[in-house]
Each structure stands twice: as C-alpha cells, then as structure tokens.
C-alpha cells in the first residue's frame, strides 16, 4: 500500500523481484495516483485497479488489504489454471475438474 514515495517503493520491488517466482501486488492510494508512471514496469509487478483513500485506523485499511488479497488470489488461480492447460492437457481448452488435482 503506497501513496507518495516511488523511489523507496522501487527499491523494495527490486529486492522482491530477485527471487524467482515472486509477484508483487501493489495498492496505490487514491491520493497518490500520480506516482503510477514512476513505478517499475515488470510483468511480475501488478498494480491493482482498486484505489482507496487510506487513513490510519480507518476501515479503508481493511478495504485495501481485502483488495490486495482478492487480486492475488484471482491471479494465482488463473496461473494455476493456465499451467494446468499448458502442461497437463496440451492443446485443450476444456479440462475436467479432476484433471486439475
């Protein structure tokens, strides 16, 4: 959750991206949408589409965390499904549910 320091954020992102398989989900605060162009562009860096006006001790903190979790879970499910299609059933767009286990 960020809103005003892209330099520090990019430093942190670079550290996280050193690890193979890492994916970084970012919530940019409504007050800081202007920093989005300054954030590192990488396929493993995902800026979620929801932008809440975060305030300490406010319900918006919960909304931001929930949005991050929702986006991460959706991406992970998609990645698992695509891996199942690519590696278990090549060339098929229809996969039996049991085949995914």
Account of the 3D structure:
A two-stranded parallel ribbon has the order 1-2. With 101 residues, it is mainly alpha-helical. The protein is built from two helices and two strands, in the order H-E-E-H.
Strand content: 5-15%
Order of secondary-structure elements: HEEH
Instruction: Tell me the Rg in angstroms.
Output: 17 Å
Q: Which percent range fits the helix content?
A: 40-55%
Shape: globular
Strand sequence of the main sheet, in spatial order?
A: 1-2
Average of pLDDT = 82
Count of alpha/pi helices: 2
Low-confidence stretches: none
Derived from helix and strand composition plus strand pairing, the structural class reads: mainly alpha
Count of DSSP E strands?
Answer: 2
- Termini gap: 34 Å
* Main beta sheet: 2 strands, parallel
List keywords for this structure.
about 40% helix, two-stranded parallel ribbon, 2 helices, mainly alpha, about 100 residues
